[in-house]
Each structure stands twice: as structure tokens, then as C-alpha cells.
Recover the amino acids of this structure.
């Protein structure tokens, strides 16, 4: 469904992503992990056509660089790390922005667009907050509204950049559960950058570990979450444990012992 | 929930009524008071296709048709353009202080008008043309510099470039003015803005620009809402943000430049009117843009009425009236409940 072929992203002289080739099958959830600056966001932004890049990104057989923004937005929905939340805009109006690729340039939303958005808000449990201004919503609610806007695009591929970094533990799990449910219901292909490696292991089908703009390891979470690899990539001592239920737990450890005094 | 519409009808209906009332009042009031019935009768009588015969005296008819009506209509058009220009710039640059005036329109028009006056071309054709050219050139320069080298047109880069260009052009204008002290008064009068010599030919000059600019901007009212999430996200939502911005800025600039070329520099309208509408009605550009145009028109018609009556028979510069009456009103609005809710 999503094919990334030898994608290289440069910011001036520095190379953020270096000839990365990856793919995600229909309905698959692929997690991008790696330290800050490893190239996760840049790769996502290249896939979303938000930064210039060399190489090719293909979605559903179409080469993203060669089609109109409108057509792209019907294929790929992108949720940035820190979405812009316009003051005074209501949740439903924000969700309706997601219908942009389905509305003519000079057009306004049809009854069908309204219906889609109301349905999406209903599905993610925000029907009661549709008329509320974004500035009055909690972090968890905002995260869901942003997801609602992406879902309203009705695109088969969802790109999420650290979707849960601002949320508390409970809301983080809630948000990922929601993405997972929607993925299964709609057969969405998800590519997401993730910080929490334990949650990444639990939710994704495959992990791609990046370092210095390159793919260091890719595969099922149990293979990628290797203590030595992670320690090297994150520059920290990391233990990977397995709990009673067979879940992987990634636990960072202090590098220096507490100084005795 | 049924198909919902943005709450534009009520504010638009109310502001349109206020505008019509303001225009009627401004046409009726003056050194010679003319009844509302005579005003309407004169207008109907001049619409040849109606074949309407009015009993109003020819003198009153002349006052209404030749003097007051063109002035009122010109003020309305200029007010609508200034408010629409401010709204559009605020939307494109995502900055509540953005306004074509700030970004070189005022400085460019001022320089253009000054050059025309000091070279002895202060007639009704060359002066507005020079002001218009100056305004358009200033904004073009701003946009080109801010986007030089293929950089994306970031809001703050355009604002800063605009402020720098404006400072430079104003300095040149001031220099020219100091070199030609005998024309200072004339330059100063133009800069402060006035409708005192408004005629139908000014209306005809402005009308095509106003219609095109308003039509283009209104057609982009939804795109302006999409741009509220920033260029990058707007691009991911399927529009060409740079292209849309350029079209909107061009339309807003042409409209504003045409407006100032016939009226002089009437400041403040582009800032206060859209913000007042945001606070009173909605932050959506589908509401702010059309309602601001109508409110801007009404505001300037009333401001001009004050300018020519408060100290009659002499006139105040209308720009002074807009600032003096607009500022306190705006400060009250700014302290209102919706501001605290974070609408601005």
C-alpha cells in the first residue's frame, strides 16, 4: 500500500534521511523508532510530501511526487507532532477541514461532508463536543479531534508523527487503542513515529529502528527491540524484559550510579 | 445533527441593515437637510430603467445625486476594501496585526502620491494612478524579497520585509516632502485621507477593482479557513498553500491600493473591523470576510459623516475620525468576554 523507495531528505548540507527503503502492506501498522534526530519525522514528512526529497514514495500504485496535492490528500492523511489548533475554531469545523481534498477549490462542504464528519466525531466519542472550541478541550480530546480530521480525509494511509507525546499514560494507551480499532475497521495502513518503545512493541506489526537517517533494523518488535541495538542507537543503557504475558518491556536505566555522600 | 451552516446570515443581515441606514443617513444629513423620502425618490428618479418621477426639487436632487451620493458610495466601497484587505492579510499571514497598510500599501501609495504632487501632477487621473502603482510596487517588492531564493512565504518573513520596505519608502517620501515644502500641505491632506472631492468618476475608477477583489476574496473564504492550520498542514490537506496565498494577497492588495488611491490613507479600518467581527460573531473567515466588508463600509460612511459635520463647514480628515472613534470602541471589544475565551 505504502512504498518508500530510496528516500533521501537533505536540509542544506546535512542529510536527515539517507536512502531509506521501506514499505507497509494494506492494514499494517509500522512504527518508526529511534533517538531524536534519527530521521523519523523527516521520513514521515517526506512521505507526506512536506519536504523535498530524492527517491520515490508510492501509495496505492501512484507516485506521490507526480500527483496533485488534492489527489495526495485523498491517499494520505498526516498528523503532525504539534498540530496547529486555530483559536476560536470548533471541533466540528476543525474536522471539516479534513474534507478539503473532497471539496472543489471554491466550494463549501456538502451535506455529505457534514455527515462524514459527524459520523467520525461520533465514532471517536466526541459527538457531544462537536460545537466546543478547540481551546476548551483537554489534551486527550484534542488528540482525538486531530485524529478525527485525519479520518475525515478518508485516506487509506495514515501518517502519525509522535501522536501521543503530549498525553498522560492512560490517554496514550486510549489514543493508540483508538488508532488500532480504526485501522482494523477501515483497513488503514499506519506509519507512525513513536517514542514509547514498550507501547510501540504492543501496538505495531513491525518496527523500523532508525539512526543517523538510516534504517538500522526492521522487523517484528521482538527482533528489533534488542538491548545492544537500542543502547547503541539511543545512547543509553536499555533493558528489554518480557513479562508474564510475553509482552516486551523496554526499560531505560541510569548510566551512572547514584553518588554516595 | 442536520446540515449546519456557518452563522453568517444573521450578522450579515444585521450589518447590511446598518449599512443601508448609514448610507441613507449620510445622504440626508448636511448643510441642507434632505428628507429620507427625497433621497430615495432622487435615487429612483435617476435609475433610468425605472421611469420614476420624483417631486423633489432640482436643487435637492443635485445635492443628493452630484454631491452626497457619490461620496457616500465611495466611502462605502473604500471601507469595504480596507476591511476585506485587512481580513485577507490576517488570514494569509496568520497574524492579527497584519494589514495591507502595514505591509507597504500605505507607504507605497504615500510615496507615489508625493511623487505625483511634487512633480506637478496632482490631477484626478495621475495622482490616483501614481498612488496605486506605488502601493502595488511596495507589496510586490515585499513579497519578492520575503520569498527570495525559493524560500516558502512564511508569515513573519513577509511581515518583517513589509515593515522594512515601508520604513524605507516612508523615509524617501519624507525626504521628498521636505525638499518641496510648498506642497507639504497638499501632501499632508492626501495622506490623512478625505472624501471631500469625491465624484462619480472616482466611484467608476474604484468599482472594477473593488468588484474583482471582493469576488476573488469571497471565493477564497473557505481556503482562508484551511490556511488557519498553517501552510504545511494546509498543503497536507490538499491545497497549494503558496499559490492560494499569492492569489489572496494579490486580490487584497489590488483592492486596497485602488481604495487608497482615491481616498488617501485611511488607517485602522483593516485592523479593527475584522477583529470586531471575530469577537462579535465568529472567527471563521466564511463569516469574518463578508461581514467585515459590510461593516467596514458602514463604519467608513459614518466616519465620513462625522468628519464633515462635526466641525462644519470645515472638514476633519476622515482618517482622524476612524482612529479617534475606532480605537476606544475596539479597546472595549478587546476587553469583552469572547477575547478572554481566546477567540483572538
Amino acid at each position: 500500500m505504502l512504498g518508500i523507495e530510496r528516500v533521501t531528505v537533505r536540509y542544506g548540507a546535512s542529510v536527515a534521511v539517507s536512502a531509506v527503503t521501506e514499505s507497509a502492506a494494506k492494514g499494517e501498522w509500522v512504527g518508526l523508532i529511534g533517538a531524536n534526530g534519527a530521521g523519523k519525522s523527516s521520513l514521515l514528512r517526506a512521505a507526506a510530501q512536506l519536504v523535498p526529497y530524492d527517491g520515490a514514495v508510492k501509495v496505492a500504485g501512484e507516485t506521490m511526487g507526480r500527483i496533485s496535492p488534492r489527489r495526495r490528500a485523498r491517499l494520505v492523511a498526516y498528523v503532525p507532532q504539534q498540530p496547529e489548533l486555530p483559536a476560536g475554531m470548533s471541533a466540528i469545523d476543525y474536522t471539516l477541514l479534513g474534507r478539503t481534498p473532497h471539496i472543489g477549490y471554491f466550494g463549501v462542504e456538502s451535506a455529505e461532508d457534514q455527515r462524514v464528519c459527524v459520523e467520525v466525531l461520533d465514532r471517536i466519542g466526541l459527538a457531544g463536543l462537536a460545537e466546543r472550541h478547540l481551546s476548551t478541550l483537554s489534551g486527550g480530546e484534542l488528540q482525538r479531534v486531530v485524529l478525527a480530521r485525519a479520518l475525515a480525509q478518508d485516506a487509506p494511509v495514515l501518517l502519525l508523527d509522535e501522536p501521543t507525546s503530549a498525553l498522560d499514560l492512560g490517554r496514550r494507551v486510549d489514543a493508540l487503542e483508538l488508532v488500532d480499532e480504526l485501522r482494523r475497521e477501515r483497513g488503514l495502513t499506519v506509519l507512525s513515529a513513536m517514542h514509547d518503545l514498550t507501547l510501540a512493541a504492543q501496538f505495531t506489526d513491525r518496527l523500523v529502528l532508525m539512526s543517523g537517517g538510516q534504517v538500522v533494523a526492521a522487523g517484528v518488535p521482538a527482533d528489533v527491540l534488542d538491548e545492544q541495538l537500542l543502547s547503541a542507537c539511543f545512547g543509553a543503557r536499555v533493558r528489554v524484559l518480557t513479562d508474564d504475558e510475553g509482552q516486551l518491556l523496554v526499560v531505560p536505566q541510569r548510566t551512572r550510579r547514584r553518588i554516595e555522600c | 445533527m442536520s446540515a449546519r451552516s456557518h452563522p453568517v446570515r444573521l450578522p450579515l443581515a444585521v450589518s447590511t441593515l446598518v449599512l443601508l441606514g448609514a448610507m441613507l443617513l449620510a445622504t440626508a444629513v448636511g448643510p441642507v437637510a434632505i428628507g429620507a423620502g427625497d433621497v430615495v425618490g432622487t435615487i429612483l428618479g435617476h435609475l433610468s430603467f425605472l421611469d420614476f418621477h420624483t417631486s423633489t426639487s432640482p436643487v435637492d436632487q443635485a445635492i443628493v445625486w452630484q454631491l452626497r451620493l457619490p461620496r457616500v458610495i465611495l466611502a462605502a466601497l473604500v471601507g469595504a476594501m480596507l476591511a476585506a484587505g485587512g481580513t485577507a492579510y490576517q488570514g494569509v499571514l496568520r497574524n492579527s496585526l497584519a494589514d495591507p497598510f502595514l505591509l507597504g500599501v500605505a507607504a507605497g501609495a504615500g510615496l507615489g502620491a508625493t511623487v505625483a504632487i511634487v512633480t506637478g501632477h496632482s490631477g484626478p487621473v495621475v495622482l490616483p494612478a501614481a498612488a496605486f502603482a506605488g502601493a502595488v510596487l511596495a507589496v510586490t517588492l515585499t513579497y519578492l524579497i520575503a520569498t527570495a531564493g525559493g524560500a516558502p512565504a512564511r508569515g513573519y518573513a513577509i511581515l518583517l520585509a513589509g515593515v522594512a520596505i515601508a520604513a524605507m519608502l516612508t523615509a524617501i517620501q519624507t525626504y521628498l516632502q521636505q525638499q518641496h515644502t510648498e506642497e507639504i500641505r497638499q501632501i499632508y491632506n492626501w495622506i490623512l485621507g478625505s472624501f471631500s472631492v469625491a465624484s462619480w468618476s472616482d466611484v467608476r475608477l474604484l468599482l472594477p477593482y473593488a468588484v474583482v477583489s471582493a469576488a476573488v476574496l469571497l471565493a477564497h473564504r473557505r481556503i482562508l479557513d484551511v490556511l488557519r492550520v498553517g501552510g504545511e498542514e494546509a498543503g497536507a490537506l490538499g491545497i497549494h498553500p503558496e499559490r492560494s496565498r499569492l492569489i489572496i494577497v494579490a486580490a487584497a492588495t489590488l483592492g486596497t491600493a485602488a481604495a487608497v488611491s482615491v481616498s488617501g490613507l485611511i488607517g485602522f479600518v483593516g485592523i479593527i473591523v475584522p477583529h470586531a467581527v471575530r469577537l462579535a460573531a465568529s472567527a471563521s473567515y466564511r463569516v469574518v470576510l463578508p461581514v467585515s466588508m459590510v461593516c467596514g463600509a458602514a463604519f467608513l460612511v459614518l466616519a465620513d459623516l462625522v468628519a464633515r459635520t462635526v466641525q462644519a463647514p470645515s472638514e476633519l480628515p476622515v482618517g482622524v475620525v476612524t482612529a479617534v472613534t475606532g480605537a476606544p470602541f475596539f479597546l472595549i471589544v478587546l476587553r469583552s468576554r469572547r477575547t478572554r475565551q481566546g477567540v483572538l
In short: Chain B has one domain: 9-340. Residues 22 and 302 of chain B are 6 Å apart (CA to CA).
